[in-house]
Amino acid sequence: MNTTASYPVDRTAAVPVEFVRSVYAWMFVGLALTSVAALYTAGSPALLKAIFGNKLVFYALIFGELGLVIAISGAINRLSAGTATGLFLLYSALNGVTLASIFLVYTSGSIASTFFVSSATFGAMSVYGYLTKKDLTSWGSFLFMGLIGVVIASLVNVFLHSPMVAWVASVCGVIVFVGLTAYDTQKIKVLGAAGFGDESARRKASILGALTLYLDFINIFLMLLNLFGRRR
Questions:
Q1: Neighbouring residues of 86: CB distance < 8 A, sequence distance ≥ 6
Q2: Is there a domain that residue 204 lies in?
Q3: Fewer CB under 10 Å: which end of the chain, C or N?
C-alpha cells in the first residue's frame, strides 16, 4: 500500500537527515512491537485458540487493522501527532497478533531466514531509493497497477485455492513491494527536503512515512515466506 503523498523531486534542497532518521526509527519501533506481539501470541495456546479458533475474532482483527491504516493515511491532517503515533503503534501490535499464524504454518528457522533475506532486500532497495539520482516518480503508476493486480489475484485465489495463482501473485508481489520500497524512500527524502510548518506536522509526516515503509517490508517478508518458507 502506498500511503505517502506525491511530491516533485527537488534535488537542490537540503535533506534534513533527522527527519529520515525519525521515519526509520518509528518504522523499526513498529516492527519490534509487531515481533514481540507475534512471539507472545504464538507462545500462548489460549490466545491462539481464541484468535484463530474463532473466525469472527480473527476477521474483526483484520478489519480493525485495515481501518487503522485508512485512518492514519486518510485522516493524518486531522489527527494530532500523539493520536497518529498511538494508532500506528496499535496497528503494529494488532498486526503482530494476526501474524502469529505464520508460526503455525512455517518452521521457526524458515521464518528467521526469510526475515533476514527480507531485511537485506528492503535495506538495499531503500538505500537505492535514497541515493539514486534517477527520478522514480514514473514508477508510481506501474507499481500501483501491479499492486492492484496482486490484490485482485489474491482475492480470487481465496476461492480458487490454486497453488499456481498463489505462486504468481507472490512473485509479482515481491517485485511490486521491492519497487515500492525504493519509490517510497525517495518520496520520503523529498518530503523531508520540503520542510514542515511545526514539530507536530513533522511528527505526523514521520509516522506516515514509517507506516508506508513498514507495509512495504511486511509485504516483502510475507511474499518471500510464501515462496520459500518451509512448512511444518
A1: none
A2: yes
A3: C
Examine residue 58 and state whether it is found in any structural domain, yes or no.
yes
For residue 221, being part of any structural domain is answered with yes
Percentage, residues of the chain above pLDDT 70: 94
- Specify whether the CB–CB gap between 4 and 216 falls below 8 A: no
Yes or no: say if 170 and 226 are a contact pair by the CB < 8 Å rule. Answer: yes
In a domain, 7, yes or no: no
Average pLDDT across the chain, whole number: 91
Question: How many helices and strands (H and E) does the chain possess?
Answer: 9, 0
Q: Is 231 helix (H, G, I), strand (E, B) or coil?
A: strand
For residue 206 the three cell numbers come to 514521520
In 100-198, which residue ranges form alpha helices assigned H by DSSP? 102-105, 108-131, 139-160, 163-194
Q: What is the pTM of this model?
A: 0.91
Domain of residue 60: give its range. 17-228
